[in-house]
Amino acid sequence: MRIILLCLLFSLSSCVVMQEDNSWIVTEKSLNGVWQFQLVNGEQGRSDIEPSAISSMIVPGHWKTVGLDYAGTVKYSRQVELAPLSANSRYWLIVGAADYASDITVNNQVLSRQEGYFLPHRTEITSAIFAGDNQVDILVHSPNEPLGEDWSLNKHLIKGVLNHHDTRPGGAWSDHGQDWNSGGIWGDVSIRQTGPVVINQLAIVPQLLEQNARLPKPGRRWPTAADITIELNSLQPIATELTFTLTERETGEVEQWTSRQQLEIGDNTVLATVPIKDRLLWWPWDWGKPNLYDLRVDVVVAGQVSDQHTTSAGFRQIVLDSDEKKFRINSHPYFIRGTNYIASQWLGEVSPKQYQADLGLMKEANINSVRVHAHVAGRVFYDLADEQGILVWQDFPLQWGYADTPQLKNAATKQAKAMTQLLSNHPSIVIWCGHNEPPWDASWMQYKYSSYRPEQNVVLTDEVYQTLRDAKDGRVVRKASYTHEHPWLGWYSGSYRDYADFSPPMIVSEFGAQAMPNWLMVQSLIGSSSPPPWPLSEEALATLAYHNYQSHETLNIAHIQQGESLSQFWNNSQEYQRVVTKFAAEHLRLRKDKGIAAIYQFMFVDSWPAITWSVVDVERQVKPAYTELAIAYQPVLPVVVFNPRDLVPKVTIMAINDTLQAWDNISLVVRNRYGKEQWRFEGLTLAPNQIQILVENKVLAGLSAAMEIVLLDSSGEVLAVNQYRAEDF
C-alpha cells in the first residue's frame, strides 16, 4: 500500500493524507490558519480598522479580534490540495463552530447550511472534491437583531449572553448592546477521511450499582456499568465489527470487547453496554479524585478500520432530591458552592491555557461548581472541568425574551438536542438548564418593555425543557433559572443584611454586587492616565455605563459613597462588594440542611473590560471580594453570628463541614485582631457533612467586632480560619 503525502508550502493550502488505491485510512488534517476573507453584506460599527484593509483572517477566531466591528455575512475562502482519492473513502469537512450560521460550498457546490453558534458543522464532501486544487468557501452569517421597539424582548438569534446581556459592550438596555458582534469561525476546521461507515455520535451513560446499603467512598472502586449509543452511517448494507476499548487513565488498565453488527444503508443506531466491573469513580475535587476513562470505538469493515472515535468517560451519579432539598453525588449529600462564568464575549479568544487558569482560580477560591451562564463555552473548557473535578451547570443559551414563532421554537429544540449530544460524555456536566429568566417568570420586564406579555415564551421554554429531558443521560434537568432564585439583596433591592433573615429557594443561582476592576483599567476606561476631574463628567459617566457600570444601583440601592475622588470611589466600590460577598455567602451556607442545596455567586470573571459583578477582572486581577469568597467557601468554615450594636453582644459560632471527614477533640480559638484578648474552647467534635453549633449565645467580654476565628485539629494543625472586620456585621 502506497501513501502519497503532499505538503504545499504556502499559507492557503493544506497537507492531507489520502489513499491512491481502493482501500482507505482514517485520518484528519487541520485547515486552521490563514483564510481569505471578504465582507458580503452587513452593518459596520465602531471598527478600529478600515474594513477594506482586511483581506485575510486567522481561523479559528473572530473578526472582532482584528478590530472589526461588523454584523452580517462574510465569506471565508481557501484552496485545499488533495492527493488522488480512494474510491471507497468518504471525506468530510468539519467546522468546529461558526457564529452564528454557516453555509459550506466546495468547488461551487452548495453542500449544507447550519444554524447554531456553538455547534460543529460537519458535511460530507466526497462527491464534490477531486485530486488537485479544491475551492472551499464558507459563508458565515452573524447579523445583529434588528433594532426597534422592544427588540430585545423578541430576539431571533439563539446566542444567550453573546448578543443580549448586562455584561456585553453597551449593556443590556442600550441600542449599543450588540456592538462588537461575536461572529466568526471560532472552532477548528479540518478535513476527515473515513471508510464507508462513519461514526456520527457516541454517547455513554454511566451507572453505579447498588450494593447492600453500602455507599461509595472516594479512592475505592465501585461496581459500575454503562449504556453506549452509537449513531453510524453506512454507504451500503455491510457487516461490521465494533471494537470497544476502555482505558483507565490512572493506571492504564485496559478492557476490550467486540460486537458484530449488520448495518443497513444510511443511518443506523447501535446499542451496547459496558460490562459490570469495579471501577474508580469520578469525584468532585473537594471530595476525591476525578477519575477518568477513555472509551475508543473502532468500526471495522473487511478487516480495516472504517472509522474510530475516542471520548472521555467518568463513572459518577448525580441526583437532586427535591424532598430533602439536597444534591447527591455518588449517593452522598453534596452542598454546591458555585459561581457563574462567562469567559469572554468572543469565545475563540479564550485559549486552553486561559480556561485552565480560570478553573485553577476557582479551585483556589474553594468553588466546586461553575454555571456556564446562558451560553455554551469552548469544548476544551469541558475537558478541563472533567480533569479538574469541577461540577458544571450548563445553560442552554436562552437569555430573557425571544420571538414566539414556530421557527424560533424549532431552532431552539434542534440546538438543545444537539447541545446534549455534543457535551453528553463530560462527567463534569451534572445540570442542564433551559432558559435564564424567561419572560413568563420575569415580571420585572413589565417595567422595561411596553409590549411585555406574562405568557411570553411559555411554549418555548417547555419545549426546550422537554428536549433536555429527552436526553435521558442521568443529569439533573431544570426548566429555568428562575427570578426568585436570584435574590440580589443589596444590589437590585433591599440590603445585603437581609440575607440573614432571607427565606431562600432550594437553589440560589445568582447573588452578588458590582465592583470596579483594577485601578489602571478604571483609568483606561475613562481615557485618563492621571486622576480625572472630580466629580466625573457626564461623558465619563456615559463611558462607564457603556462598560456596564450601573449608577442607580450603586448610588441609590447599595448607597456606595463616592468620596472626594475617583480613587476613593473605586476603593468604596470594591469594599462594598467584599462585604456583600462575605455576608451573603456565609448566611446562605448556614442554610445547609435547612432548605438550600446550592449557591452560585455572580459572577467569576469579566468577559471584557468592564465594571460588573465579577470577583476577577478581565485581566485576571482579583478583587478583594475574590479573597473573601475563597474564605467564605472553605469546605470547613467557622461562622460568627454577632451583632456588635446590641447593648450586651452575644456570640454564636457555628462550623460548616462540607467534607466527608469527621474530627474529634478539635479546638476553637477566638481572638481580637487588634488586641491580645483571646478565648479558647476545647474538646469539640465536628461531624461529617453537617453544620454544628460550637458556641451558643455567649458573652465574651472585651470581644471586638474585628476578630479572627481559628479551628485546630487534635494535633494543633489549622483546619480553617475566618476573619471579620467591624463592617462585616
Notes on the structure:
By secondary structure, the chain is α+β, with helices and mostly antiparallel strands. The protein has 4 domains: 3-193, Galactose-binding domain-like (Jelly Rolls), CATH 2.60.120.260; 196-318, Sandwich (Immunoglobulin-like); 338-514 and 580-632, TIM Barrel (Alpha-Beta Barrel), CATH 3.20.20.80; 636-728, Immunoglobulins (Immunoglobulin-like), CATH 2.60.40.10. It has a 7-stranded parallel sheet. It is globular. Mean pLDDT is 95; it is low at 1-21. It comes from Photobacterium aquae.
Features:
TIM Barrel, 4 domains, Immunoglobulin-like, alpha+beta, seven-stranded parallel sheet, globular, disordered N terminus, 729 residues, six-stranded antiparallel sheet, single chain, Jelly Rolls
